[in-house]
Amino acid sequence: MSFFKKNAKILLSVEEAKDRLYREISEHLGWKFLKSQQSFKKVVNNLVFEIRFYSSKWNSSNENIEIQCELRLWCKKFDKIDTSCTDIYRKNNIHSSVGFYAFTPPAGSWWNITYDTDLSDVIKQLCDQFDEIVMPLYNQFETDFDKAVQMLSDEKRSTDITSHLNL
């Protein structure tokens, strides 16, 4: 009987799965989670690093819980809304986006966090990807903003970090 207890998967509610996900990632990154926006944000000068989460409308406690995660880089300087503007592209601020990366699981496009063991694996995989992709880039911008901008704009100097991003 103890074998089954040790190896039993525990189903989670949507709320407890998401709360644990955000809490453990926040502890790992050291970034505050903005619950109303379902995202972590850090700003360096005018550049915003935003890790966003989306959940499936089909999520159901103790049945199926899935999330998606992405990194968006956008420039606050270009994010000002011009309400008098009639150009739909400028009015909706699409020009403020400077980079994007979708964190995807090995199979599929949704991370399954239905069970406690699945959630633990997803947290580890996401944190590993944050350490590989987000943090080195963030640290470069924090250390020398101008040099980091130059590195991103120079295709010849592209690094492993920039190869992940859609710029």
Structural account:
The chain has 167 residues and is of the alpha+beta class. The protein has one domain (10-164). 41% of the residues lie in helices and 22% in strands. It has six helices and six strands. Strands 1, 2, 3, 4, 5 and 6 form a six-stranded antiparallel sheet that branches. The model has no long low-confidence stretch (mean pLDDT 84).
Structural category: alpha+beta
Beta-strand residue percentage: 15-25%
Please report the total strand number as a whole number: 6
Helix content: 40-55%
Number of helices: 6
What number of domains?
1
Largest sheet: 6 strands, antiparallel
Kindly report the average pLDDT value. 84
Categorize the overall geometry. elongated
Topology pattern, helix = H, strand = E = HHEEEEHEEHHH
Summarize, please:
The chain is of the alpha+beta class and 167 residues long.
